[in-house]
Design goal:
The chain has 89 residues and is an all-alpha fold. The chain is built from 3 helices and no strands.
Amino acid sequence: MPKKGETNNKNGRPPTGQAMTEILREKIDKEKIADKLIKMANKGNFPALKYIYDRVDGMPKQSIDLTGEVDMNVNINIEGTGGPKPQDS
């Protein structure tokens, strides 16, 4: 186990251009991938169709229903508004 301030990764993060994502970005043919995705969607591939719609129109907003009880006491004291002044303890 490394001590505080030390790392097991002696080589560190690879410099830009050597990381897998950088290599893939250079080699990927976006046009071919887009064409293939469209062909798949046209043949009825639902995940491909959904992917296209999510990228073109944006993913639909999802709502979350939270139910339950919250027990909370809130005290707000604002000075200088002409309202009641806070009491000294």
